[in-house]
């Protein structure tokens, strides 16, 4: 045990997982991995406490696990924090799987205890075999290069100090030191995806390479370095070819064509928006098509529009409509329309952020609203009505931006101003001094 504890402490120092005299919260289920972790942290330079979740999914086993962890905490003289959950009810309420529900509840509790009790880090007992399982799962599911680094030893407040051990080494330590633990019967079932990997696939791979876990650990280190290089290149591209716009981003098609390697780099740029590798292939095949081509991810829409690939969130709501009763400031999303009065005809009519309208032409209350299908107005300088949708196309206004443009509507239903793009010809200011309303657009 002394050599194992020394190995654990060296790994913590090498990976810079904990500072001297740090407080660490140990996630202990009662299984051999987490129990050994607790034993190794006992009498360590760190101030350790334990946290346990009872998900009430395995009847008497769940109660047995909780009782075992309570006794273990007393034996090791560590404070214990625990909570009992109705996991099935939570899963039904959130419309997620039991496994996902347990994961969410587990990490919510860990973080709550860490924050309220002043722990620096949360330690979970994942080991090298778990890292290999994760890589295989990611390869099967297709997560790209980022999925090949396995499990990182430190991410935000979560650390994994047991990554210095293989599962077989943990088994040997537990047996040699007669360490008691409880067995989760669900670990023996291969109905779960990860269990299939652990129980069926890895043993077959180890027949081909008995040093499989060690080999994977070496590869994982190389993959992590490759990912770091790729991330540096991706960050550079984000700062050079990705342009922010209202509610989304845009990338020039010509910049996409110049990417090398094209598919890999474009996938890394689009992955945060939920797009898959196959969609990137389709996009690259459709770059020459006309504007209007759409690609959908679960969270975002990508459109090819006038030489750009534009990405914006799905289901973004238009700002609430506002009624205007007179002078004052009115908000529409992140835009503000200030309304004031003047007794004189303005001398400068060229500022596109300001609209002037004769008071006698207005029917209050006016309205600030989003555009609606079928909207028409008479753009300043024209003599006939134009569909607002056609006006947006002519002005090259991105699809996702349209619903956030304030439309100033008269009480009679006429559109007075498409802020700040164009006023309506019918509402231009005539000659002579008349009472004028001044509308100023700010963002």
From TrEMBL:
Residue span, Lysidine-tRNA(Ile) synthetase C-terminal domain: 366-439
Gene: tilS
Residues bound to ATP: 29-34
Protein name in the entry: tRNA(Ile)-lysidine synthase
PANTHER family noted in UniProt: TRNA(ILE)-LYSIDINE SYNTHASE-RELATED
Annotated keywords: ATP-binding, Cytoplasm, Ligase, Nucleotide-binding, tRNA processing
GO CC terms, sorted: cytoplasm
Organism: Pelobium manganitolerans
Enzyme class: ligase
Role this protein plays: Ligates lysine onto the cytidine present at position 34 of the AUA codon-specific tRNA(Ile) that contains the anticodon CAU, in an ATP-dependent manner. Cytidine is converted to lysidine, thus changing the amino acid specificity of the tRNA from methionine to isoleucine.
EC number(s) from the headed UniProt entry: 6.3.4.19
CDD domains the record matches: TilS_N
Reactions this protein catalyses: cytidine(34) in tRNA(Ile2) + L-lysine + ATP = lysidine(34) in tRNA(Ile2) + AMP + diphosphate + H(+)
Keyword ATP-binding: yes
Compartments (UniProt record): Cytoplasm
């Amino acid at each position: 045990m002394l050599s194992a504890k020394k190995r654990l402490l060296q790994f913590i120092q090498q990976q810079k997982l904990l500072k001297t005299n740090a407080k660490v919260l140990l996630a202990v289920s009662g299984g051999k991995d987490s129990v050994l972790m607790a034993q190794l942290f006992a009498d360590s330079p760190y101030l350790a406490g334990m946290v346990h979740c009872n998900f009430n999914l395995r009847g008497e086993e769940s109660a047995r696990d909780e009782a075992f962890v309570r006794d273990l905490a007393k034996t090791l003289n560590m404070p214990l924090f625990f909570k009992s959950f109705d996991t099935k009810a939570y899963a039904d309420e959130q419309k997620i799987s039991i496994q996902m529900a347990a994961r969410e509840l587990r990490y919510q509790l860990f973080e709550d205890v860490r924050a309220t009790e002043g722990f620096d880090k949360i330690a979970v007992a994942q080991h090298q075999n778990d890292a290999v399982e994760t890589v295989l799962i990611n390869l099967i599911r297709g997560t790209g290069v980022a999925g090949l680094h396995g499990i990182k030893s430190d991410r935000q407040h979560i650390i994994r100090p047991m990554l210095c051990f293989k599962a077989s080494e943990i088994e040997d330590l537990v047996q040699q030191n007669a360490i008691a633990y409880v067995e989760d019967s669900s670990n023996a079932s291969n109905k779960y995806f990860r269990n299939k990997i652990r129980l069926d696939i890895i043993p077959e791979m180890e027949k081909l390479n008995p040093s499989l876990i060690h080999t994977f650990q070496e590869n994982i280190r190389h993959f992590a370095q490759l990912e770091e290089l790729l991330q540096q290149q991706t960050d550079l591209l984000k700062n050079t070819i990705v342009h922010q716009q209202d509610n989304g981003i845009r990338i020039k098609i010509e910049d996409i064509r110049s990417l090398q390697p094209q598919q890999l780099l474009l996938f890394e740029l689009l992955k945060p928006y939920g797009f898959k590798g196959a969609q990137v292939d389709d996009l690259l095949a459709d770059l020459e098509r006309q504007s209007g081509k759409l690609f959908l991810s679960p969270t975002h829409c990508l459109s090819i529009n006038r030489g750009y690939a534009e990405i914006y969130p799905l289901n973004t709501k238009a700002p609430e409509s506002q009624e205007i009763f007179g002078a004052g400031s009115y908000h529409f999303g992140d835009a503000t329309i200030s309304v004031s009065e003047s007794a004189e005809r303005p001398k400068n009519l060229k500022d596109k952020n300001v609209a002037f309208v004769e008071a006698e032409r207005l029917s209050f209350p006016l309205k600030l609203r989003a555009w609606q299908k079928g909207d028409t107005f008479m753009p300043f300088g024209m003599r006939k009505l134009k569909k607002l949708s056609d006006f947006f196309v002519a002005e090259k206004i991105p699809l996702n931006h349209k619903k956030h443009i304030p439309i100033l509507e008269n009480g009679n239903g006429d559109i007075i101003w498409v802020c700040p793009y164009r006023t309506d010809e019918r509402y231009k200011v005539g000659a002579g001094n008349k009472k004028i309303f001044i509308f100023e657009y700010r963002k």
